[in-house]
Amino acid sequence: MDQLEQKKRLLVSIIKFLQDELNKSDLTEEKKESVEVAIQCLETAYDTSGIKEENVVDLLSLIPSTSVKEVTDQQKLEAEKFKNEGNAAIKNDQYSEALYFYTKAIDINPHNAVYYCNRAAVYSKLEKHMEAIKDCKEAIKLDPTYGKAYSRIGIAYSNLNMFEEAKKAYKMALQHDPNNPMYESNLKLAEERLAQSQSDGGLGQLPVDVSQFFNNPALIGMATQMLNDPGFRNVGHTLANRMNEVDPSFMDSLRRSMNQPQPQQDDSNPSGDSKKPDEPQS
Known about the structure:
The chain is built from 13 helices and no strands. It has helices at 3-24, 29-45, 73-91, 95-108, 113-125, 129-142, 147-159, 163-176, 181-199, 210-214, 217-227, 230-246, 250-258. The longest helix is centred in the first third of the chain and has 22 residues, at 3-24.
């Protein structure tokens, strides 16, 4: 279909929409007259011949629906039940189960910011920090004053060594919950890590989450076997010396990154109640 044919199809579709409005809408006589004039102007200004009716596009069907899913009181109760089961699971370090329950709660009632924030906490425990950030952003869309969601974004960014973003998130958390000592502590830590990274020319922080290595038993076992291999130790020693020759600050930066304190987790309240951040939600 060439450009002229596309224009004709669009114009005929607009005219069809306006004609439907004349027949269906509760327009006043004055407004109907205006719509009729608009149709006449389009038909006069453009050649719309040759377009078959089956090629007319329903313009309204192209507009995405913005309707909000209605949640009944019964569904809200069911979602709360799943949320509470998720809370119990996360307290028992059953993170896969908690993820399942919070996801069920969200599926039933996608309008509750607490559910997204709770699931974000589980994602952080599972070292899935980008998923945690995504869920926190969804929670903030639903409740822009949700300090805990900003805090958990900060924790996720800190775990990804993205300290500039973490700093901004902690500041937002404090803006909505200014008397929270944990947010203040984590903000200070993010600022310290950011300053250290900048002083190291960006080498102070590894581009990966080191905690993923230390929390993975399989990787720890593999590393232990490699370190017990005399041949590997010789290669590793040579590689370390070579890296130190290229950049003498690298090994110091590596050691500092591995020994850095981690941001405090706000696990005392798995319910993530946006109104009472230090108390479990009933």
